[in-house]
Specification:
Elements: H1 2-7, H2 11-23, H3 38-41, H4 43-50, H5 55-73, H6 78-81, H7 83-93, H8 97-107, H9 113-134, H10 154-184, H11 189-209, E1 214-225, H12 234-247, E2 256-259, H13 272-285, E3 288-296, E4 303-311, E5 314-321, H14 335-338, E6 361-362, E7 368-373, H15 380-388, E8 393-398, H16 408-423, E9 427-431, E10 437-439, E11 456-466, H17 470-474, H18 477-505
Parallel strand pairs: 1-2, 2-3, 7-8, 8-9
Antiparallel strand pairs: 1-11, 3-4, 4-5, 6-7, 9-10
Helix pairs in contact: 2-4, 2-5, 4-5, 4-10, 5-7, 5-8, 8-9, 9-10, 9-11, 9-18, 10-11, 10-16, 15-16
Length: 526
């Protein structure tokens, strides 16, 4: 152990080890999807930061681990952004600098029982603060939030209905902190075990108490996935394939047909022939068709990605323009400064335009839908707002064809489970090239996924529920609680510093006067 400690004295070795430790949680996400691994994946990183000789070094280890984490969960961007992926990961890794300082502050040396117990609340709060900041769309959005690794765990989905993915991240980090205490600080095993017991109790209580979605019917939704279409005139040939697959749905009693993101590469106002063909499909199938137009608009400047509803008579007027764009994929932040990214990867050559508001559409059969486009399914607040506005089914139109042979399609599809569980509304995730998936209002998967090798149309029996989940009603309350905890820690540290400075600056107490044999104080000069 001493030899290993000497080996860690090298800053470079510690940095490399921190990067590797920070990357470990990647295995909890799809495609490996080792969800159970998340509950111990942070322990090596925590133990490393805990052993840092100084607070500055702990902060540096936090940054290195954050770099490793961000690079690992976004590694599928490397073929597109190349070295710029590493630059982005390094910038986002800075968000874990305060977390590294907190780990050392509360776990270094031989922590007292009180400090250990506080760590089980403070460290998850610090992690949530980092996730909150990086959830800003301009910094890449909340892709790879730690709690999202629990998308297939039924008790975790119940917790998501109470506090969203934020509550899951909090509990996962709390379990990791408790395990780190059990491994490295034997003197505080009681608080560590108590923390694990509280986590189990909270999970059990949520399982029993949290209201379950009240299912009151079902709708038949068809997902059309054309598969990979490359080469010359791929946009037109993809449309022909989607038309062929949709025509095969005639007579199957569907209530809605959903095409994937960028399923129509032409503005329908400029191509009335395509609008007429989709309207004919709607009449033939007996249901509206939700397409996704990715084209330069005919009535306003710029390129938009838009969910457009087409009925038997043509476009109904129901339209949603994508609001949150993918950084570098659909626009380049501060293009005048970062435009060089287009020369080292497949960054957007022209910025797409943003929509201004979310839209709930009525598609007949008593069904109201809330569309999201691709990247937007990573944002829990967007699906929550749609549920509050009356959407009965959440619909995501997506395309990850650029990352077809990576972990990205499965990671993206898994997010639908969290959004469904958070809102108590079913989620339909329709893609061009896979993975397409459907989830019930409790977040459990309905039917099979349509994989990246599938070119097909499939009808899903989607249960519809009513009622409001605690998360929809209360919002991101775990984040607000975490910020209050961090504010209390900051205030406590500030008071400690003030008291320490006062003690250092206080004059030394004067020595008592010497007394004579008669008990009188001795006077100077006597």
């Amino acid at each position: 152990m001493e030899r290993f400690g000497r080996w860690l004295d090298s800053p470079w070795r510690r940095g490399v080890l921190a990067v590797l430790a920070g990357a470990l949680p990647m295995l909890a996400f799809p495609a490996p999807a080792l969800w159970w691994f998340a509950y111990g994946a942070l322990v090596p990183w925590i133990l490393l930061v805990r052993s840092a000789p100084t607070a500055r070094r702990a902060a540096y280890d936090g940054w290195c681990g954050g770099l490793g984490y961000m690079l690992a969960v976004h590694h599928w961007l490397l073929p597109s952004l190349h070295v710029f992926t590493v630059v982005l990961a390094a910038l986002l890794g800075v968000l874990w600098v305060p977390w590294g300082w907190l780990v050392r502050r509360f776990l270094a040396g031989r922590p007292s029982a009180g400090r250990a117990a506080a760590a089980l609340v403070v460290l998850p709060s610090g992690w949530l603060a980092a996730e909150l900041v990086r959830s800003w769309q301009g910094l890449g959005g909340p892709w790879g939030m730690l709690g999202a690794s629990q998308w297939q765990v039924a008790p975790a989905l119940r917790l998501a209905s109470v506090g969203g993915v934020w509550l899951l991240s909090f509990l996962v980090v709390a379990v990791n902190a408790a395990l780190a205490l059990l491994v490295a600080a034997r003197g505080v095993r009681v608080p560590a075990v108590a923390g694990l017991a509280v986590t189990a109790a909270v999970t059990s209580a949520a399982w029993v108490w949290a209201p379950r979605p009240a299912v009151d019917g079902q709708v038949r939704v068809a997902v059309v996935q054309p598969g990979v279409v490359d080469g010359a005139e791929s946009g037109q040939r993809r449309f022909d394939r989607e038309e062929q697959l949709t025509r095969g749905l005639a007579g199957r009693g569907v209530d809605l047909v959903v095409w994937g993101e960028s399923s129509v590469g032409f503005d329908l106002a400029d191509r009335p022939d395509l609008a007429r063909r989709i309207a004919a499909l709607s009449r033939e199938v007996g249901a509206d068709v939700l397409v996704n137009v990715d084209a330069r608009s005919s009535d306003r400047p710029g390129i938009y990605k838009s969910s457009v509803l087409v009925g038997p008579q043509g476009p109904t007027g129901e339209r949603y323009d994508k609001m949150r764009l993918v950084p570098f994929g659909e626009y380049i932040p501060a293009r005048s400064l970062l435009g060089w990214a287009t020369s080292v990867g497949k960054a957007a050559g022209e910025n797409r335009r943003r929509g201004t508001e979310q839209v709930v559409m009525y598609v007949g059969h008593g069904l109201r839908i809330g569309p999201l486009i691709c990247f937007e399914t990573a944002f829990p607040d967007m699906s929550r707002h749609l549920a509050r506005d009356g959407a009965g089914v959440l619909l995501a139109q997506s395309s990850t064809s650029t990352f077809q042979h990576s972990w990205a399609p499965e990671q993206h599809a898994s997010l639908g489970a969290l959004r469904a569980a958070e809102t108590g509304r079913p989620m339909v995730h329709a893609t061009l090239t896979g993975v397409s998936a459907v989830y019930g209002p409790d977040g459990r998967r309905i039917g099979p996924w349509l994989g990246t090798g599938d070119s097909t149309a499939r009808v899903y029996e989607v249960p519809v529920a009513h009622g409001v989940t605690p998360y929809v009603r209360l919002g991101d309350w775990p984040v607000h609680a975490a910020l209050l905890v961090l504010a209390a820690v900051g205030a406590h540290e500030g008071v400690r510093k003030v008291l320490r400075r006062r003690r250092r600056g206080a004059p030394a107490p004067s020595a008592p006067r010497a007394r004579t044999g008669r008990g009188s104080p001795a006077r100077p000069g006597r």
